[in-house]
Amino acid sequence: MGATSQNVEGPSVAGAPAGAGDDAAAGGGVGVEVVEVGPEDHVAFVRAVDTGFLRRRKATDEEVLAGWGPLLSTGRLRAAVDGGRYVGTFRSFDTELTLPGGSALPVDAISAVTVTATHRRRGVLSRMMAADLRAAADRGQAAAILVAAEYQIYGRFGFGPATEQLTGEVVKARAGRLPDPSAGGSAGGRVELVDTAEYRALAPAVFERLRATRHGVIVRDDRWWDIATGIHALPGEEWNEPFWAVYRDASGAVTGTLRYRVETRWDREVPDGRLTVEDLIAPDPEAAAALVRYALGVDLVTRVEFVQRPVDEVVPLLLEDARGWRVLEHVDWMWLRILDVPALFAARRYAVEGSLVLRVRDRDGYAEGTFALEGGPDGATCRRTGAAPDVELEAATLARLALGGASAARLHRAGLLTEHRPGAAHRADVLLRTAESPWCPDNF
Ligand SMILES: CC(=O)SCCNC(=O)CCNC(=O)[C@H](O)C(C)(C)COP(=O)(O)OP(=O)(O)OC[C@H]1O[C@@H](n2cnc3c(N)ncnc32)[C@H](O)[C@@H]1OP(=O)(O)O
User: How many domains are contained in the chain?
Assistant: First the structure.
């Protein structure tokens, strides 16, 4: 294990040669080398990620290793090294992304991207990204995904925002008549509060039903569930036990799950609590409505916040007075980098039968070319073609359209999509857009 004395540049590492590396002409400055990180340097990697994200973690090396080691072992770790110290970090791991129509596309998920303040804007991220995307393409993965810390970072690497999400709040006093939380579902089901172990046992199956149907969703593996339920503690991160609830339909089957926390507040003798719905997974409308009504009905609470929700969230439609709902934040969320246009577009499904010829420009080559797409509800083909294109766009713009969440007509108005045939943007929308918005409920 490398020494872990922290300084501004991050810890020194065992697996990297001090001072070794390529020259400034390769980018990244003199002496900076991009290396793969093995288990012997997991602690140094975590410390460097913390430095990059401006965090000070109070945990010993042993605690860091016990908490993060199993997680890091499932992914690929890259680091930039200068003088034997990590100055850049990059993690990627395999997951599956649900496409419109329900098929699961194997993709490369990127996280823990940092470059220390001393080495920024010298091309260190560019080199780590280039290495990772090349490796993902060589493995046959059709796309890479990430959640961007800042909007301006990833477009240059061919990523575009493929899902958006919102956080909204219900001000109960303005929402009209509120439901009785004990009333249960309209179809004879009921909401039950459960303990952590029951939730851990019941929730994954409900999530799998969402994943099979909602495009934009990615895998939650056992490790994810253990961390999300506090069963696997992450060192230096405080765990506050939330409330867990499930919805059982009339047959007793669990069809929805809810994780929420409450901050109790008082305005003198008047209760003014805040309830935050952190994770609401309910593929069935009946379960979704029952769990929303339950959250709104909890006493001693005046505001209920729903975080990381799809942009077509139903909460306002469940209120007697929809003006009790207000959107607090509406942001880009999961960014997509298409590495193989035919593989992705042939794997998704389309609401109606249609065809479209796309000319895609890609500085890095992966998505460059002209592609003939023919698709419908039951299947699709997407092949390279010599035919004249209907529309022309950058790979990063195509990423916005890939999951059906963006409007080609709007992109055309913004000058991001060129029509080579009049009306082609509208035709693209008829083919590519989806009735439900793509939604990635997770941060990774
Ligand atoms: C998936 C995730 O993990 S998201 C988390 C991203 N990490 C963070 O936000 C932590 C704090 N920031 C950082 O660690 C770094 O600034 C990083 C990782 C964002 C960028 O690393 P760098 O090594 O500086 O990037 P690099 O030098 O390769 O930049 C490439 C280009 O992107 C631009 N760029 C990089 N970061 C940003 C940014 N935050 N805003 C605007 N432009 C940026 C650079 O100016 C450069 O432009 P150019 O090619 O026209 O010269």
Answer: 3
Residue 114, annotated as binding a ligand? yes
Point out the domain boundary residue: 141, 156, 185.
Answer: 141
Give pLDDT tens digits for 227-262: 999 999 999 888 999 999 999 999 999 999 999 999
190 and 312 both lie in a single domain: yes
Among 433, 359, 437, 423, smallest CA distance to 401 is for 433
Distance CA 1, CA 355 (A): 56
**What residue owns the CA closest to ligand 1's atom 46?**
121
- Tokens found for residue 142: 């059709």
Instruction: Answer yes or no: is the C-beta of 53 below 6 A from any ligand 1 atom.
Output: yes
DSSP E strands, 99-253: 104-115, 143-147, 159-161, 164-171, 190-194, 243-248
Residue 145: CB atoms within 10 A of its CB come to 26
Residue 100 lies in a domain: yes
ipTM given for this complex: 0.97
Catalytic residue among 154, 159, 247, 260: 154
- Distance in angstroms (rounded) separating the CA atoms of residues 151 and 129: 16
| β-bridge pairing 143-147 and 104-115 | parallel
CATH number for position 396: 3.30.1050.10
Expressed as residue numbers, the domain containing 373 is 339-432
Cα of 157 from ligand 1 centre, angstroms? 11
93-125 pLDDT per residue, tens = 999 999 999 999 999 999 999 999 999 999 999
Q: Whose CA is nearest to atom 8 of ligand 1?
A: 114
* 148 ligand 1 Cβ < 6 A: yes
- 189 plus 275 within the same structural domain: yes
